[in-house]
Structure formats: C-alpha cells, structure tokens
Amino acid sequence: MEITIIGLGYVGLVNAVYLASLGHEIFGYDIDKNKISLLRQGVATLEEPNLQSLLTESLPNLRFSTNHKDAIRHASHIFICVDTPQDKDGSVDMKNFYAVLDNIIEDSISDQCIVIRSTVPVGTNKIVKQYLESKSSNHFDVISFPEFLSQGKAISNMIQPDRLILGVNDQKGVALAKEIAQLYLIKKAPVMITSSENAEMIKYASNCFLAMKISYINNIAQLCEKVGADVDKVAKGMSYDPRIGESFLKAGIGYGGSCFPKDTNGLYWIANDNSVSMEIVKSTIDINKSQVEFFLNKIYRRFKSLAGLNVAVLGVAFKGGTEDVRNSQAIPIVKAILEKNANITIYDPLAMDNFQKLFTRHTRIKYVDYPYDALKNADVVLILNDSEEFVNLKPLDFITYMRKPVIFDGRNLYKVESMEGTEYHSIGRPSRVDKVKTRKSL
Ligand SMILES: NC(=O)c1ccc[n+]([C@@H]2O[C@H](COP(=O)([O-])OP(=O)(O)OC[C@H]3O[C@@H](n4cnc5c(N)ncnc54)[C@H](O)[C@@H]3O)[C@@H](O)[C@H]2O)c1
C-alpha cells in the first residue's frame, strides 16, 4: 500500500507518524509550507504526548511535501485529513476538502482508493465518487473512515482505538476496508464495515451525543445551584447506573475545541436541510453558550466592578494537554473580563502562543511562564481548563501568592471540602466563603 496523507493537522499528522512508526512508508502533503519545512526537519508541529519521539524515530519512513502532484501520483491510497470547519450559517465548510478533490482530479492515476478521514456531511462519500469520476476518466474507490481520536490522547487512541468504523458502497469496498482496518489493528478493537451513510452518521451522532452529555450535566449544574445540590455528587450517583456511566458528566464552563462546536452545528444544519427537527442538538448548543454567561455572572455578582483588578487566568486551551485554542471557552471569557477593564495575567502550559495571536493589541494582558507568576498579587483567579498542573495546585498556593485567594474554578478541579482558607466558587456546587487566609495572616 502506497499511502499519501493530505492535510497534516491533528488527524493527518498523528495518522502519518503512527503508520510510519509501524514501518509503513508515508507521504505527507500539506499546503502549509512552514509546517512542511518543520516536519522535514523532524519537528512535530503539534503538542501531543509521544508525537515528537515517534516522529523522530519514524522520520526515515516519512516524506513531506507541498507538491500535490508528487503526493497524489505516488499513492495507491489517499487519506484526506483536511479541516472541514463551520461555515457562517452553521453548515460544514467543504472548501478545503473540495480543493483536495480538484488536486486529485488533476494529478490522479488509475484505480486509487480515496479514504475520507475528515468529518464530512452524510452523503459525502457518494458525492465524492460522482464528482471525481465526472471530472476524470480514472476509476476511484471511496472509503469513509471517520477518525475518533481525542486531542491530548491521540497517539494512545491510535495504538488502542475504541472502534474502527469504515463505510463502503460495494463488495470491492468491503475488501479495501478490511485492508485499511488491518493497518490499525495492532491491538484488538471492534471493526464495523457498514454503508458510507452509516459511517458518516456515526461520527456526527457520536460527537453530538458526547456534547449533549456535557450540556446535560451543565444544565443540571445550573439547577443544582438553585436547589442546594452538588452536581459532582449527583453525577457520581448517576454514574453507578451502567446505562449512564461516568464519562462526560463533569460540569464546567462547557465544551470547546475544533470538533464538538462545529459538529453539533453541522448536525443541526444537516437535520434542518433534511426537514428533521433536532431541537435536542439546538439545546446542546444553546446550553453550551449559556454556560459562559453563567460563569461570568457569578464573577460579576461577586465584584461590584472588575476595573483595575488583577485577574489571573489559568488555562486558555480548550482543554488540558493541548495547545489548541480553537473555540476555547477562554476566548469569550477573557474578552468579557477585558471589557470590564481588568488587568489579566495568563498562564497555560501549552497554549499561550496560540492564544496570544488572538489578542495581539491588548496591553492589559500579560503572559507569564509559571502558574505562580499568574497568581502573584492577583485579586481573583479564573481556572478555565483541566491541565494537570492546575489539578495539582493546593489551597496554600493560592493563599501564598494571591492578594486574597478568591477562586472561580470553571472546571471543578478541586473538592469543595479541600479548599480551606479560600473563597472558592465552582460550577453546580455550593460556594465556600471561608474567613480567607492571606499571606499576612499565615
Ligand atoms: N482534531 C481532532 O481532534 C479531530 C478528531 C476527529 C476528527 N477530526 C476531523 O478531522 C479533520 C481534520 O481535523 P484537524 O483537527 O486535523 O484539522 P487541522 O486544522 O488541525 O489540520 C488540517 C490541515 O489540513 C491542511 N490543509 C487545508 N487545506 C488543504 C489542502 N487543500 N491541501 C492540503 N492540506 C490542506 C491545513 O494546512 C492543516 O495542516 C476535520 O474534519 C475534523 O473535524 C478532528
């Protein structure tokens, strides 16, 4: 199998490096010249655990190029991994995806297998085949192979996938799908070969279900605060029911990232386009937006004015363990706090460079290299993601460094009972307003 991977972002690069590490020769193509130049030098362009070491050791099996002719002509199998972002109206923007198809039409050789790893609207597989074969005299097989990796765990997800879902439309497709699945079956995993529509739908239905679980528990959290319940205890109690389970039941300021926001909007749009009412998905999206307001309102209620206050922000990536700030809930929160004329000091272990690019002209934001430097002399700290470093902070860290340890924890990282000596607010749990300790009172 001669594999070319087109689009070397989270999905494409991780797939390329992983397959190369298994001994396959992989040709990676991307339009981003800077990215290709770094990859050629063996520099991983993403923060993912083990990605850099795997890239270093697999470099002899990897070729990187910005020349689509070379990349496409070389391949028996072309994996499309480009981004399919959200368009202004909520639909899926397929511009990059179609640019790849046009490259394939220009440079194809006969009998190539197109493997769609990008998340694409239901029906795309069949449209792709028609599109390619209407514009080229070559024959193509098209396999839908949605990717389910999770950023921050991408390599371990490759090594041990939860499942491999492959969508095909004929018997030849079944044989091709089996060969492709075999590439990833280093450990045992369920393999489902099904219709292309099923495979495409499984990807959207899975992501939207997970997003819905998050919005559900966040909605419950809002109610918990009104009725004096604790959402963590409620979620724990719910999780003993094996039909519910414990994953994705952590209340917080909502989901972000490049997948859940665009895929919920994408599914809602696809449903509307097919005259199916999917209010459950709409509510998921609305609750997620409202969660930011819910968090901000807690802060506004606590402080008459934020003007001139020193606000420490811990965590700006959409979750811990990644440098990705796409659709991070930190973006609207930092914007809102800036509008209230506060001074903001930000620390994130991985995402500061990316975040900084979004707030270039703001003189009231400072970026620091250590969490303690952010806490130093802060009047309040906002914890916005679940980076390991923040999970390990202790009440004494806040007490020692802050002017007054007032904590707004948007990810419920600490047990309320453990936050002695602080003023501690979180999501869906009772606030703790102790007679707070300060450096001076220690
Ligand atoms: N990020 C995830 O966790 C994840 C998980 C599962 C599925 N997906 C899906 O996989 C797809 C890719 O996501 P991603 O996060 O890797 O995107 P990304 O933005 O990280 O990477 C996309 C890459 O494609 C390149 N590209 C864009 N247009 C191109 C073109 N015409 N030719 C060649 N390269 C081109 C970009 O330069 C970029 O390097 C999306 O459809 C996404 O929904 C993402």
Characterization of the model:
- Helix 6 links the parallel strand 5 and strand 6.
- The chain folds into two domains: 187 residues, 3-Layer(aba) Sandwich (Rossmann fold); 213 residues, Rossmann fold (3-Layer(aba) Sandwich).
- Helix content is 43%, strand content 14%.
- With 442 residues, the chain is an alpha/beta fold.
- The strands form three sheets. The chain has a seven-stranded mixed β-sheet with strand order 11-10-9-12-13-14-15. Strands 3-2-1-4-5-6 form a six-stranded parallel β-sheet, with helices on both faces.
- Nicotinamide-adenine-dinucleotide binds next to helix 1 and helix 5.
Task: Give a brief description.
By secondary structure, this protein is α/β, with parallel strands linked by helices.
Write the layout of secondary structure elements.
Layout lengths: L2 E4 L3 H12 L4 E4 L3 H8 L10 H8 L3 E4 L2 H6 L3 E4 L14 H13 L4 E5 L7 H12 L4 E5 L9 H6 L4 E5 L2 H14 L6 E5 H32 L3 H9 L20 H14 L5 H24 L7 E5 L15 H10 L3 E5 L4 H7 L6 E3 L3 H5 L4 E4 L4 H4 L3 H7 L4 E4 L13 E3 L6 E2 L9
Parallel strand pairs: 1-2, 1-4, 2-3, 4-5, 5-6, 7-8, 9-10, 9-12, 10-11, 12-13, 13-14
Antiparallel strand pairs: 14-15
The structure holds nicotinamide-adenine-dinucleotide.
Task: Choose one word for the global shape.
Answer: globular
- What is the number of E strands? 15
Give the C-level CATH assignment of the largest domain.
Answer: Alpha Beta
CATH-level-4 superfamily name of the largest domain: NAD(P)-binding Rossmann-like Domain
Q: Within the largest sheet, what's the order of strands?
A: 11-10-9-12-13-14-15
CATH architectural label of the largest domain: 3-Layer(aba) Sandwich
SS-based class: alpha/beta
| Oligomer description | single chain
Number of domains: 2
Q: What hetero molecules are bound to the protein chains? A: nicotinamide-adenine-dinucleotide
What proportion of the residues form beta strands (DSSP E)?
5-15%
CATH topology of the largest domain: Rossmann fold
Number of helices: 17
How many strands, which pairing sense, and closed or not: the largest β-sheet?
7 strands, mixed
Question: Could you tell me the radius of gyration in angstroms?
Answer: 24 Å
CA(first)-CA(last) distance? 66 Å
**Residue share in helix:** 40-55%
The residue ranges in which pLDDT falls below 50 over 5 or more consecutive positions are: none
Overall pLDDT metric: 96
